[in-house]
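tool_call: predict_structure(chain=1)
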Amino acid sequence: MNTKASSSQARAKTTQKPTRIQREKTSVILDAALEVFSSRGFRGATLDQIAEQAQLSKPNLLYYFASKEALHAELLSGLMEKWLEPLAHIEHNGDPISEICAYIERKLELAREYPRESRLFANEIIQEAPRSKNALNGRLKELFDEKTKLIQSWIDRGEIAEVDPHHLIFSIWATTQHYADFDTQIRSMMDTGYDDRFDTAKTYLIDLFTKGLKR
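tool_result:
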């Protein structure tokens, strides 16, 4: 086969719509990669481990994703969208304390529904975000700046107590994501109430932040 024909076939392959089987295989591989990356971190994870978790051969996995880096990048890309959404939904025209408490609830729900994704993100940050600095310095930073300015405007108008907007958001991240990132520790420490931890955490955190934000 000549070079021109090979090139044409390669372009056709990359532009073809994935089949149902290809979509299913991609989903299985990404779920397996998430399991391995979230438990072992990027450095500790291998393609062999991911292939085994997906119950696929390594060559089959490599047909869909060319490298460990490509898999990790795909997961981080999807994760960033999940992480941005709750922050983006803080409304300018809402009641300030209600908006902040709703954000806490959304973050807790993320921790409940997506613990592996949270640990994946935490591992990436602990390693100084070598594969996600552009995302951190891009849309997340823009959104963070936008919401801290909004919170500061609420403070300036006397609608909530004088707090540092940056540390307010950091503290919400820390207290909500803790329930995903340190679940093993929580399970070990709680003799009772583990199964209800997200519900009781919501009650506690909403009360804590509401008291701290009231003037």
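agent: Confidence is low (pLDDT under 50) at residues 1-14. Proceeding to next step.
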